[in-house]
Amino acid sequence: MFYRVAFSAISSILLVTLFFGQFANAAGTTQTAVTYDIPGVIQRTSPSVVAIIGKPTGTDYEKERFNLAHGTGVVVKADGWIVTNAHVVKDMANLTVVTLDGRQFDGKVTHMDEESDLALVKIQAYGLVPAKFAAPNNFKLGETVVAIGTPISFTLRNSASAGIISGANRSVNSTYRLLQTDAAVNPGNSGGPLVNLRGEVVGINSLKFVSVGIDNLSFAIPSDTVQYVMRHFFTYGKVKRPYFGADLEESWAAVVGLPTKEPLRVTLVEEGSPAALAGIQPGDVIYSINNQAVTSLVDFNELLKKYLPGQKVEMVTQSQGDIVKRSVQFGEMKK
Length: 335
Fold this sequence. Notes:
- The chain folds into two domains: 1-239, Thrombin, subunit H (Beta Barrel); 242-332, Pdz3 Domain.
- The protein contains six helices and 27 strands.
- It has helices spanning 38-45, 86-89, 223-236, 252-256, 274-277, 297-304, and strands at residues 2-3, 18-19, 23-24, 30-31, 35-36, 49-56, 69-77, 81-84, 92-98, 104-106, 108-113, 118-122, 132-133, 144-149, 159-170, 178-181, 193-196, 200-209, 218-222, 242-243, 246-249, 264-269, 285-289, 292-293, 312-319, 322-329, 331-332.
- A seven-stranded antiparallel beta sheet has the order 10-9-6-7-8-12-11.
- The protein is globular.
């Protein structure tokens, strides 16, 4: 089983240097060496990391003074906008946000999207240091990354742990793909950044596997999903997801994580849905959306991030043995 938890501290800082060298080009000009190191990354990115603390609601201990919950957030705009995990702030009241220099601000949850596990918190502050997000898919397996956050105790805020990107395109009972890292994790760092040695946020730490015999198996929401959700938050006030209206089933190979070209199978079509209006029926299979193949539910959900409700796509399907192109006009997903 897994629990959504946070990313932990390390007792000492490991120094890793990527040395590009000092060399002379063809014209004889000497170029300066570029060095990236973990202490430097922590120093540069920590001002963009905040701690979040509040009172959990809906518990028997809600009225107890010292019954507090905490997590981590990342500054995305200088005037007090902070992104964090939805599960951090969902059941938290009396939010207080604490910056690196110890300043305290009342926080208000303005947007929440549990599907992606992301939320926005607003504080009345100015001159904050926004984090820089990495370009989509701008990472390599084995690349060194640093997780910064508030593990175990609020007194340990802005602790850091180092690791590598262990895997990409992971599906862990999640709507969208996740990054896997072996950075050490502990409760409280949820919502904090996973940064590369260029100081760019490659992901927002979200969950880990917890079980006897499992070590350092943690996951982060990639920067492209974070930016997709924030763009919708600031533009529409919510994430406007396309509605298809059919239940889809993956092949056995896709379920166990094997490479496959087997398409998705339709198991149920809702009456009056965009799928039904397009003529899609239970038993049909879906090969592609606008010429992009889909072999898993995560593939399907990732492709839908490109579209808004009301937009049309062409789906290549197989129905009763025939290959058929269907024009589907998406509706809007309702919660």
